[in-house]
Amino acid sequence: MAKRICPRCGQPYNWLEVHKRASNNYVYAVHVVATKPKRKVVKHYLGPLERYIYVNKMHPRENLGLTGMINEDRAIMYLEALIEYFNRVLEEGRGVADREKIRRVRRLVEELLMEVELLDA
Ligand SMILES: [Zn+2]
After folding, report:
1. Torsion from C-alpha of 18, 61, 97, 95, nearest 10 degrees
2. CA dist 109 to 74, 94, 97, 103, 106, Å?
3. For the stretch 82-117, what's the b/e string if a residue is b when 16 or more beta carbons lie within 10 angstroms of its beta carbon?
4. Residue range 63-118, pLDDT digits in tens
5. Which in 44, 84, 100, 109 has the greatest CB count within 10 A?
6. CA of residue 72 to ligand 1 center, whole Å
7. Could you report the per-residue pLDDT of 54-65, keeping only the tens digit for each?
8. What single string gives the DSSP state of each residue in the chain?
9. Does the predicted TM-score (pTM) go above 0.85?
10. Ligand 1: centre distance to CA 67 (Å)
11. What is the β-pairing status of strands 25-34 and 40-48?
12. Mean pLDDT, residues 10-32 taken together
């Protein structure tokens, strides 16, 4: 989060706060919206510092490792986790019904790769 831009509202934030709770550590982007007569701040919740504990328990097989908005790499992490999940499914001889869906996703990934190659050219 190098630019210090809040992923919730798109505005710069002044600092991050981590609120430690028994259940997890939660991150907030703090925006100072007024300094006079008194400092006034608005806090935007960005999710857990690391992983959602309860939410991830709801996806034990996929093992997505769902994280808060503070993690800018989370989309690619989810994609990698899903690929690993489907590899396990296929190795276990399951996923017969998923094969055509996997082929469709392959086409989408190939199109995405073409975009990446164009941007890198
Ligand atoms: Zn914000």
Report:
1. 130
2. 17, 22, 20, 10, 5
3. eeebbeebeeeeebeeeeeeeeeeeeeeeeeeeeee
4. 888 988 888 899 999 999 999 998 888 888 887 778 888 899 999 999 999 999 99
5. 44
6. 15
7. 888 888 888 888
8. -TT-B-TTTSSB-SEEEEEE-SS-EEEEEEEEEE-SSS-EEEEEEEEESSB-HHHHHT-TTTT---B-TT-TTHHHHHHHHHHHHHHHHHHTT--GGGHHHHHHHHHHHHHHHHHHHHHH-
9. no
10. 18
11. antiparallel
12. 94
* Dist. CA 44 → ligand 1 center (Å): 5
Q: For residues 106 and 67, give the distance between their C-alpha atoms in angstroms, rounded to a whole number.
A: 25
Span from the CA of 19 to the centroid of ligand 1 (angstroms):
16
User: Ligand 1: distance of its center to the CA of 40 in Å?
Assistant: 14
Length of the chain: 121
Q: How far is the CA of 34 from the centre of ligand 1 (A)?
A: 15
